[in-house]
Amino acid sequence: MNYHAHIYWNNLKEKIEALATRTYLENLGCILGRIWDIPKGPHPLPMFQVKYTSKNQKKVEQYLNNKSLTILLHEDIGKDNIRDHTIGARWIGKPLSLDLEKLK
């Protein structure tokens, strides 16, 4: 199974923490997406995406659970983006409202 994490920030302190998190995740073998300093797609805050698999899921999610950031974790089934970002998702930190229309 494939997974995505979207790691958000809303100020400089959170961005610094997010970028430190990014470095750690890269060392775990995750694939890192572009850093967006503006809202992108359905995401209401700046963020970057992390791709990982069931092979390193436990390590990735244990690490992210200890962060003070807002993070969306979701399955990447690839057939239904809305499902992946809702039913197949969970939040660490404060949940955000996604613009699901942009996933259609």
Brief characterization of the structure:
This protein is α+β, with helices and mostly antiparallel strands. The protein has helices at 12-27, 57-65, 81-85, and strands spanning 2-8, 31-32, 47-53, 71-75, 89-92.
Helix content: 25-40%
Q: Please report the number of helical segments.
A: 3
Radius of gyration: 13 Å
CATH fold description: Alpha-Beta Plaits
Low-confidence stretches: none
Quaternary organisation of the protein chains: single chain
Strand content: 15-25%
DSSP E strands, number? 5
What is the ordering of alpha helices and beta strands?
EHEEHEHE
Average per-residue pLDDT, rounded, comes to 95
End-to-end gap: 22 Å
Shape: globular
CATH superfamily: DOPA-like domains
The main β sheet shows up as: 5 strands, antiparallel
| Cross-sheet strand order for the largest sheet | 2-3-1-4-5
Instruction: Please give the CATH class.
Output: Alpha Beta
> What CATH architecture do you see?
2-Layer Sandwich
The figure for the number of domains is 1
Write up what this structure looks like.
It is a single chain. The chain is 29% helix and 24% strand. It is built from three helices and five strands; from the N terminus they run βαββαβαβ. It has helices spanning 12-27, 57-65, 81-85; strands at residues 2-8, 31-32, 47-53, 71-75, 89-92. It is globular and about 30 Å long. The two termini are 22 Å apart.
